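Annotators were shown the component list below and the corresponding predicted structure, then asked to write short factual statements about the assembly.
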Amino acid sequence: MTGPVCANLGCDTGITGSRPAAPSTVPVATVGIVGGAGFTGALLAELLLRHPSVELTHMSSRQLAGESVRQHLPRVRTSLAFCHDAEVSDVDVAFVCAPHGQAAPVVKRLCDRGARVVDLSADFRLTAAEYAEWYGEHACPELLPGVYGLTELHREEIASATLVANPGCYPTAALLALAPLKRRGLLDVVVHATSGVSGAGKTPTGTTHFCSVDSDYVAYGLATHRHYPEIAAGLAPQNAPVVPFAADQSATAGPQLTFVPHLAPFQRGISETIYVRVGTLPPPTQQQLLDLYREFYDGERFVEIGHEPPKLRDVVGTNFCRIYPHLDARTGRIVVISVLDNLMKGASGQAVQNMNVMLGLPEHEGLI
Amino acid sequence: MTGPVCANLGCDTGITGSRPAAPSTVPVATVGIVGGAGFTGALLAELLLRHPSVELTHMSSRQLAGESVRQHLPRVRTSLAFCHDAEVSDVDVAFVCAPHGQAAPVVKRLCDRGARVVDLSADFRLTAAEYAEWYGEHACPELLPGVYGLTELHREEIASATLVANPGCYPTAALLALAPLKRRGLLDVVVHATSGVSGAGKTPTGTTHFCSVDSDYVAYGLATHRHYPEIAAGLAPQNAPVVPFAADQSATAGPQLTFVPHLAPFQRGISETIYVRVGTLPPPTQQQLLDLYREFYDGERFVEIGHEPPKLRDVVGTNFCRIYPHLDARTGRIVVISVLDNLMKGASGQAVQNMNVMLGLPEHEGLI
Amino acid sequence: MTGPVCANLGCDTGITGSRPAAPSTVPVATVGIVGGAGFTGALLAELLLRHPSVELTHMSSRQLAGESVRQHLPRVRTSLAFCHDAEVSDVDVAFVCAPHGQAAPVVKRLCDRGARVVDLSADFRLTAAEYAEWYGEHACPELLPGVYGLTELHREEIASATLVANPGCYPTAALLALAPLKRRGLLDVVVHATSGVSGAGKTPTGTTHFCSVDSDYVAYGLATHRHYPEIAAGLAPQNAPVVPFAADQSATAGPQLTFVPHLAPFQRGISETIYVRVGTLPPPTQQQLLDLYREFYDGERFVEIGHEPPKLRDVVGTNFCRIYPHLDARTGRIVVISVLDNLMKGASGQAVQNMNVMLGLPEHEGLI
Amino acid sequence: MTGPVCANLGCDTGITGSRPAAPSTVPVATVGIVGGAGFTGALLAELLLRHPSVELTHMSSRQLAGESVRQHLPRVRTSLAFCHDAEVSDVDVAFVCAPHGQAAPVVKRLCDRGARVVDLSADFRLTAAEYAEWYGEHACPELLPGVYGLTELHREEIASATLVANPGCYPTAALLALAPLKRRGLLDVVVHATSGVSGAGKTPTGTTHFCSVDSDYVAYGLATHRHYPEIAAGLAPQNAPVVPFAADQSATAGPQLTFVPHLAPFQRGISETIYVRVGTLPPPTQQQLLDLYREFYDGERFVEIGHEPPKLRDVVGTNFCRIYPHLDARTGRIVVISVLDNLMKGASGQAVQNMNVMLGLPEHEGLI
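Structure shown to annotators:
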């Protein structure tokens, strides 16, 4: 961690200090939420109401405008009423929790009015070409690309960004897990991902019916999940050449990537078990592998490298991502397990983390 | 148990015999299901396909007519396709799994064509007056009332019935639990009921969303649940006068009944804890209470009296109801706990049990 | 709320303010935990590490003394190691999370050394006579009774207490739910309680095996649960005479109380549905009932009166208790539903709330 | 399917026939269970009590000898009492559900007395050398190897076997999923496996505590799970040479196999997502892949090839294994998903299936 944000974080890297940083006594910024009635919006509101340095002044919902927030979201203990989207204005930072496609014009309006925006949709994560292939034509291509808001990997750009594209939940877990291996040359990557049901959103469907999810475990979107291009883009070697996996693979395209998400019977959390072959031989030892990860994330508060497979219960409700890299000695394959709370580090928590970076606040302020 | 059915059951009352009764080698009846795509219809189909003495020839669905049953219901391993409701005809016994209100005209048509009907809706469980109060005007009042299909309590009428009103899941558990106490004079009854989510049906709603049910426990329908009049009717003293509970209660109306259903995070099963004050003093001892229940249900295959609080896992997937009566010595109150599988003894299993009685088959044939 | 604590809370009773109170910049007290490896101890540590005005200096465990806290409890992000029980000393406030019987001598030692103690065991909740009946002889009867730490009902005594007996989880939910009705004369009370599995503690047993709990719902301890006398004591009329329920009941003993706990398949949370008959006729209307509760708890941050049955998800992870009183118009019975997080308001959260009162801090500091 | 068993099954391969085969009216064999108090033993008893052609005469338990089976296992509705292990004798077929190591001498005694044995432990699945490496010295190496009881792949040997080694749950799902691809040359195989908690057995441990499993998903045994050698042995190419994956791999050893089991919050079921590279290029099309699987398992009752990812709810409580093969077109990798009920097809159900084959009964008799 370098740059101006680091100065603020300097005293917090030791783990003795879960104690909150001494906050400013007066809010330094006003914030608003567009689309506050869904899972991510409601959790954002909880976090922002407890945040010592910002004031939540607006929270919109297309369905519920005019109604009491607290009546619909009992955990959001506020006296605010939901407003209309267009009323979220004149805030220092706006969080946009609209569905993809709907988010882009909202973001544009907010940027035009001078707000800094953290967009939690997929609308600003991809290039125009990728977006067109996976989602269709983009409404505001002139704003592309947003700064990709994977905090640990793009902290400096985020600090000065006007528009931050908050990453998807699956990509956050995958890219944090694989970043330390990129310099080794990623050849072949299987991301086996398991998500809780909140990842599917609040709208009732056959898929989210309790009797469809409970006591089951099912793969979905094998060829079509829209987090695929986001992960692929994050793994692209850019400057570093990779050794091709097989003769019929072009040498420049990044690893052979397979991504299979699964739905599991819990509410919150993502667990990814990632099977990797790297290009540099011989494979590292288990100790070298652990050292590699620990060095890479040294000083990072929200990324923990464990010495055994992590559990969701260690991260759910927090902004932490826990990673365990394991060498499969029989095959030389590396197995990396990465867990996080899809609504926290995978969405609203990382959004607050990004806001903190944008405002020059301690990066963990208001976060657990 | 008396009458012709008993003869068939004679050798099965010993618990050594979970062995299936020797079935007829040729189906003795054809059966059909109206409304086969929901939870109760699908489970009925599973049961009927395994039943050695009947042949499932028709299975209708308004939404899915013309489509393969098995594609939509992988557990229903049949080559049938869904037909239209009106095509379910020329069967010896028809099961109607339509919603209340929609069921009545279907039942009438089937009766008119000479089928015997087991209706799993609420349409034939109440008197016309009660129905009007809780559901609205009845479409076919001339068919009221059906024979109330609580098998253990109405076996003889069921044997000769044309139209059996299969009981609701909550009333089945409550009425089996309280029947042995009725002769004591029920004064005051609180039915605290807990149901799995399948009781709410297959349609996705905010209530059945996994993230609404999981890790929670919530009361609903405190004043309005439509199983209230069905339970109240079953508890009415009829010929036996009861001692009034309080001065302001009319002496003839049956017990003071409170019924509060709750939704719990599991798929199948109902557990009722019933708090009762009876009129005859002094209260029985614990041993007298157990003896009372064991005698009352002596010889019944599907009602088990336990010596400790029963678990859902002892009955889910089966047609059994397990009951534990307990004397609360400090207060003289009786606490009766009753559990069953809401889709089996509470719906489809009891429907098959009733069909067996109607056809003169061994009562447990095709049931676990 | 009156007294010195109230002054601090004055500006926080409006619900706009989930914002943390401005904390002192320097810890005002040192705190320690005896028995930190169980569910309540670990959660206490999480809360105290985030608390802005205290410093957690000691955390003991008989099994794990000398080992890293964080290795065994990954959510407790501290650099502390577990110490021996006897090393928890020289702290301003000590929390004792030992099992009943083991707690008493630990508490005595701490009190002798001048610490103020919040004891989370059952050792100081009852009179010596009650304790002897339900638990056996008390090791330190000279310390009985502790101040009963149901914060909302005993705030002033807690503020000056040396030894606070933190209430049990079931009694907290029941007594908060029934306190507003006591002046009406409680005649007959059935507490139907449902708890998550964390209430059974961390030790693996046949009862807490996943395959025993999942998809089930089971009553236990019908006659023997040790929270019975704690609830009964809290409901005793003391000065207010009650109308006897029945001729064979002595008029002075408090209500006819039945308490039946049940275990449900979730980790955290207690839901109680309480069926009550009060002595004063006629029963209140629904609106009068709501008004009665709202007035009784006016100004209380952590007790919420809802207008519909509460859900566990509205309180789990927080220190809130939500209560919904309902008039069952058919019978005149009052049904009160009360939910809380058994590890928070039912244990560790209320312990921190009590500590805040004892130290003159804002009552909600460090709590959500 | 060929041979004498096929004749019996001739009329059952069409899916119209879930109807039970007409059973013999008299039991053709007596059967016993050694180790009947665990999950697999109890389920075996349920299945055998309902089986029309066998009579369960003995059920032993070291802990519970002399006590009523039904009292401890309420679902096993029998009047048998548990006997001692040594009393299971003079049965035609014995099922041994003892832990590995303990099973071998029990099996030997039974074989010496002339019983045919289905052993559900791991004691007879491996060669002596493999067993020594993973478990230690074998007590009865002279009996090695048993006939490997993966019914669909070894039916003829099972029919005449004296000792059948019933496969492990993970290997059953994996080997059925990969058998059709073996002739293509398996190069690289990742078995990502997810199991319900019943796979961990009935003994309470920290791992099986509800609060450890619920709402979580965790990898375990990454390098050490004892089902690894069983899967590896089943994938060994034997006669077919494979193309080596990489220069440093010896050409004869079978595929590069990584096996990572995970524990998920449900009771029953295994789901495996298997990532495969095969040696023959080019990869098949999706249609060719489906055709390959459908042809391979044509006529098999208990293996279903689906056209979308299967759900556990389609197989739990049944003896079916459902498999979905998918071509990942971007990489040429094949993804095979395989689900079954670990206690049924993964243990007790397959044991009954094997018994049926051994006795010349219809292979699905007594099974759903």
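Statements collected:
1. Chain A has two domains: 4-167+347-359, 171-343.
2. The domain at 4-167+347-359 of chain A is CATH 3.40.50.720 (Rossmann fold).
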